[in-house]
């Protein structure tokens, strides 16, 4: 059996969806085979071939605190979170750093995007748009002060959020995690799936008629705790959360692999990581969307995976009741799976005739696809699966027994940085950046952006047919990722494709593409959406395109927490490597600067009207963009292929002090916590740090947080501590700039960047500059921030 410090248990459940506004109501209706799919009342269906949806009907959403500051997706999530916390007998955590929030979403604040475009562009809508707002507002509501992030892997996001929650607990980074997903029904996803001809005009019929999906909305939350924490406070425990598996298809941006190969691998990882047998799983809650390609791919995967050891496993899809709730789907289905486990009840897939049943039996053989009414069955373990745009596959196991989850040694592996790919306003290569540093380059205007050219594609061997599929963010991400592989001399093959994964960190992700799509359908109607543009609205599309281009089939996740996401991608990648999930990871930060992004910054009064530099005491920053990718490998893996090593990733830390999303003032002490946490993780003291790569961007509010925190942490040493600030060259590129700061640290430590101009802060807070020789630098601290009060720190060393 697994040791107690590996055990993760569920102590609270919360849900809101089309068949219920709480767990009790939802479960009762599910047992009675009630479907929440009806004609939509919230979007315009003129000239649209399908008009059904599974919408939430709840009068109390606006009863939450400050509802005018929150998008519908956040309100749904907060309602489910409040129920789950009450169920777990937990209250406000008072910024407790041992409490984390991980929320999955596909479209985030898309209703606020619609409102902004259609109602005079009010600035108040802007902070409600990004997916990043959801987890931050949940944390603010309950006072969670630990790691707060959002998983943006579309329809697999809810499942991955719960998997990540367990990873944090097992790594010793949290005691309690509020995990799940939320999405709202809106015109953009409705029109988008219409444009793909993916909606069923008669309502979805998973594993049956398979003519398309029906969209839903809602939120699901599970409170996950370490076993010891739950035991200590005498909490009720629904079940154990055992292992999970996440893979990438590297196949198509919207369609799954027909053979289900990578979904099978995700299921295999989930079972292997759980320490159970395939035969222990009594019920599988399938993704089951109702599209022919998805349902057939799943049937193929189930047949391959269970045929020999568990041929009669029970299977069903609950989307015929709730609709497809996108990023909330996996979380809602996790609640269903846990209720099924604890009540020994398998929920059914609805609307089967006798003729339908015969047709299904011919396809699935002995597998028990439960139809129309619930089935009693003694259950020990259940599995829940989800797949998503971008080629993501996720699988997770819930159990009545502890399983045999093996905890990897936290510091059992040295992690080497072996490759760097840079796309920035200064050019699209590492060398372009190094040249810019030598020439002391500065932004030429208050809004700068990166540009991909045909030369980039020719140099990297990327075909123009692939290039034409990409939007701007996809281009930035693909070029930086392929350059990182090239720089690392890492060739992806059939043999190693599953050994390497990708974590994409992004602040706004597909927000620009979402706004572009909203403009289109507002002008031409929901019946006239673009099948080409719609996939780009999904935040993980950029990572999906990189996976397809590179052939990487391992762990693939997109996280979005604001600018800090670029640094969190590094910390997250370190965790995946420590856990033994992958031997190599690409950590990347990507954000774009389209005209609408600059407009948002201007509306929020954070964009400067002229060129400013860090510590200029300005009332705004230069808006920038870019994509920076960093290859990281176990030292063993790197040595085996004779890879060059820039430096080593030594430690990672986080801190949070809740302020309203969109704000940072008043949260600075959380940066102290992040720095100290990273130093502790690296086994280092303040005196060991030789330099800092910071996040100062010229905006006084942001810059003062960095200066004041470093003064508290480093004391008198700060006067002689060089601060390297990449945003003086590339502007505020959010997640891209955070990863660029880490890349600069690696370049300084490796000697490829022989020197750089650094800032020095005197005791009175005044700032001076001088050139610093990199030869004496051995350990560099990198820091990043996000609105809402989240901070991260990474330590790199020779």
User: How would you sum up the global shape?
Assistant: globular
Low-confidence stretches: none
Separation of termini? 39 Å
Q: Which structural class do the helices and strands define?
A: alpha/beta
In terms of DSSP E residues, the strand content is 15-25%
Instruction: Give the beta-strand count.
Output: 27
Query: What is the CA-atom radius of gyration, in angstroms?
Result: 25 Å
Q: Look at the structure and give the mean pLDDT.
A: 96
By DSSP (H or I, 4+ residues per run), the number of helices equals 25
| Biggest sheet layout | 21 strands, mixed
Helix content: 25-40%
Give a structural overview.
The protein has 798 residues and is of the alpha/beta class. The protein has 25 helices and 27 strands. The strands form four sheets. It has a 21-stranded mixed beta sheet, with helices on both faces. Strands 2-3 form a two-stranded antiparallel ribbon. It is globular. The relative contact order is 0.12.
Entry summary:
With 798 residues, this protein is α/β, with parallel strands linked by helices. The strands form 4 sheets. The protein has a 21-stranded mixed sheet, with helices on both faces. A two-stranded antiparallel sheet has the order 2-3.
